[in-house]
Task: structure prediction
Amino acid sequence: MARIETPRRIRGTQDIFGDEQRRFAHVLATFERVRALYCFQRVDIPVFESTAVFARSLGETTDVVSKEMYTFEDRGGDSLTLRPEFTAGIARAYLTEGWQQFAPLKLTTSGPVFRYERPQKGRFRQFHQIDAEVIGAAEPAADVDLLVLADQLLRELGISEGVTLQLNTLGDAATRDAWREALVAHFEAHRGELSEDSLTRLEKNPMRILDSKDPRDRPIADSAPDIDAYLTDEARAFFEAVTAGLNAAGVAWERNARLVRGLDYYRHTAFEFVTDRLGSQGTVLAGGRYDGLIGSLGGPETAGVGWAAGVERLAMLLEEPAAATIDAVVVPMGPEAEARATGIVADLRRAGLAVEMAYKGKMKARMAKADALGARFAIIIGDDELAKGVAAVKTLGAGTQAEVAFADLAEALR
Ligand code: ATP
Ligand code: MG
Result:
């Protein structure tokens, strides 16, 4: 007989279970709570979009567009792409749904995103992001709002220790043009020492050489001219307003003049929260201002600023999460008790208690199940109890036991 091969999990995807699942859920629940404190609205957008949404807004030369997208033709012959990030899709929705009327709009979302990358610790092909955006606000106060939100999220997750906010400015259009020229001159002078990837970047987007991870590029990137000498008065004032806002809100930051964002649409503020606790996957949260994005999608020039964070990377930084607990396990002994227990379990659950029934194995195995589930109480129902209309309720931590009438169980468990 032919052996049936078991299917494999696709490389770079995850089945999230148990302890990992609890960490994951904790990150999402904390984000959901904190975003409400900052008055951001939750939005959900499609997992796939027309390929043009990402290609046009992220820029054809970015790593994401040139190497990492999951692009396919659907049965109708349209080119679609699984979202590699949220910002482009939110900008598309802003235009197609007429959300201009609500501007400035403070939005958050979360869910799976897809990038064809080499999988390793903290790097997946289907991973999850939480995302926050402010669209239609050109003021530095919006950047500050988002950064203070990010800072509070990390604090409430208990992981802000050892995570640093690195901040830079990419200036306005005039600043970028002048700085770009200076960068090209510098990199041209070191052409022979650059990696092949950076030679391509030199033609298409020289700024990206600054955040190259290739060791051949690092000395040349590190000695490149800073943006500071090229900042226009407006760009300088914008950056100063952002840093003043962070100081006023008590958010620590440090300047990283080498920090540029991988995507084409960034202006002014660029930032990353980084840690050395995750090896080379040290960026946990990253973003910046993208005033050029909505225009590049064919919409009216619209300011925007936002960030995204990898849920897996945040989850990896969490302390050991508390083990899951439930209120009670009901342990019936014998078929009659089991029938009665089915009704009792249903009533307790309707009363808002988390309850499981142990119906497998001998008494010992059933009690072991109560322990394994972290139950506060075991509710034991045997023939004697059935006859009396009571259950033996054992407090598992203390080992004490009391008889409780069936009708009073919900009250007793509280
Ligand atoms: P990296 O430099 O690590 O590739 P990136 O600049 O591509 O990151 P962004 O596009 O800014 O990342 O995405 C925001 C966040 O999403 C990152 O800071 C990181 O926490 C997370 N992230 C990015 N790519 C992955 C991935 N392949 N697997 C897991 N998390 C990821
Ligand atoms: Mg990347």
About this structure: Residues 18-37 form the longest helix (20 residues). The CA atoms of residues 47 and 88 lie 12 Å apart.
